[in-house]
Amino acid sequence: MELQRIIQEVKRQMNGAISQSLSELGIEHKVNYGVSIPELQRIAKDYTGNHELALSLYEQDIRECKLLASMIDDPKLVTGEQIDNWAQSFTNHEIVEQVCSNLLWKTDRALSRSIEWCLSDNEFLQKAGLIIAARSASNINAKNIVFEPYLEIIEGFESETFCAQKVSIEFALRQIAKRNPEFKQKVLGIANKLASSSNEHKAWVGSQILFEFEEDK
């Protein structure tokens, strides 16, 4: 059985140092074998596109199984119900980053949920929404109007949100700015306001954006 074969392979590659390091960073999983991301990517190559296996893997309360599920699933087969179910397991930053970056942004149903997630009080859903917006900004087939609301949402974020999400906010702004000159000017306008803020997290985001596009001036 493929599921059991994968779990056995994961156990063979377990790394206590990585597991301990993740715990120290506050990244907790019910079961964590500490297998590195590159090693998981190697394992995933043999099962790419296996949707049913991905669903079975994600049901396991094992870090590596959930991450592998996001690496092998077929975005075209992901349903809205699956996205909602998987989002309920967003309990640490690693799972959010991996699931959204590996899979969810490539689906047809995640972007429509990401605005609601950005407005959520749940920090992990907020992060998921921002990552999906950032990744989706590279999709040349996406309509520009889809990304307008994110700029308004980010401008309206409280200082506490910038503290918790500054890296994801910067990522979203940077990627949206790259879509076209009009978005770039809008993002730079936001960045200038943020850079002059007395809040260190807002100022950091603004400064990073201005530095990113400084050479284009």
Output the keywords.
217 residues; mainly alpha; 2 domains; 13 helices; 66% helix
Outline of this structure?
The chain is mainly α. The protein has helices spanning 2-12, 16-24, 37-44, 51-58, 63-72, 80-87, 93-102, 111-118, 123-136, 148-156, 159-177, 181-195, 200-213. The chain is 66% helix and 0% strand.
Can you give a write-up of this model?
The radius of gyration is 18 Å and the shape is globular. By secondary structure, it is mainly alpha-helical. It has two domains: 1-90; 110-217. The model has no long low-confidence stretch (mean pLDDT 95). It has 13 helices and no strands.
The structural domain count equals: 2
Structural class category: mainly alpha
Beta-strand portion reads under 5%
Based on CA atoms alone, the radius of gyration comes out at: 18 Å
Q: On the 0-100 scale, what is the average pLDDT?
A: 95
End-to-end CA span: 57 Å
Please tally the helical runs, counting DSSP H or I stretches of 4 or more residues: 13
Largest sheet features:
none
N-to-C SSE series? Answer: HHHHHHHHHHHHH
**Coarse shape:** globular
Q: List low-pLDDT spans.
A: none
Please report the total strand number as a whole number: 0
Percentage of helical residues?
Answer: 55-70%
